[in-house]
Specification:
Layout: H1 2-14, H2 34-54, H3 65-78, H4 80-93, H5 98-119, H6 128-152
Helix pairs in contact: 2-6, 4-5, 5-6
């Protein structure tokens, strides 16, 4: 992580540009189960919060597009779990108002679908949207775990490869 951070900071200080390649294509193999992906995402989350703490100067509005992209593509994304917890707390606190009661019902329904998606085998294609809800919820929970790891300094710096599916293999 430090090898990446220092050169990026130096490049930005020297006025170098970062070029976006529109034709670039990337593929990512997925881990065979939600547990492996949870561990991977919580490790990545700890590193993400570390990078925010090291690169916070990029949020300076005078940096223009860099500040905007860092805020919208990094900071907001990594703080999404806190926004979700905040929305749940607000919906509970404002439960007496009908609108927030419906919002709470929607939020709890989504989390229920997420739990159901974790219990339904992945090969049921008709219920694929439940697995999307499960992945969204689990990954945001993993980011919370990663935040707490980073905060207490409990992130192991040793990289461990996450087991991936072989070509054509289907998750159970």
């Amino acid at each position: 992580m430090d090898d990446f951070v220092i050169p990026l900071q130096a490049k930005l200080r020297t006025g170098c540009t970062i070029i976006y390649e529109y034709g670039a294509v990337a593929w990512e193999e997925t881990p065979p189960n939600i547990g492996a992906e949870f561990s991977r995402r919580s490790r990545i989350g700890a590193g993400g919060f570390q990078s925010i703490s090291l690169l916070w100067r990029l949020l300076d509005p005078r940096r223009g597009w860099i500040a905007f992209t860092f805020l919208s593509h990094k900071v907001c994304r990594w703080f999404c779990p806190f926004f979700l917890v905040g929305a749940l707390a607000c919906n509970l606190a404002l439960l007496g108002l009908a609108f927030y009661g419906y919002c709470l019902l929607g939020q709890l329904s989504f989390y229920s679908c997420s739990l159901l998606g974790a219990l339904v085998p992945a090969h049921f294609r008709a219920l694929k949207s439940l697995h999307v809800a499960t992945m969204f919820t689990a990954m945001n929970a993993a980011l919370l775990v990663g935040f707490w790891r980073w905060l207490r300094g409990g992130q192991n710096g040793t990289w461990e490869r996450t087991v991936r599916l072989a070509e054509g293999e289907v998750a159970s």
